[in-house]
Amino acid sequence: MATKKFMYLNRRSSFGTVYAIESLEVVLIAAAFEQDVSLAFMDDGVYQIVEGQETDGIGMKNFSKTFHALGDYDINKLYVSKESLEERGLSESDLMPLVYEDEDDDWEEKPSVKVVTNDELKAIMSEQDVCLSF
Amino acid sequence: MAQICGAEVDEEGFLVDLKDWNEDICKQMAADDDVELTDEHWDVINFLREYFEEYQIAPAVRVLTKAIAKRMGKDKGNSKYLYSLFPYGPGKQGCRFAGLPKPTGCI
Question: Could you give the ipTM of this predicted complex?
Answer without folding.
Answer: 0.81
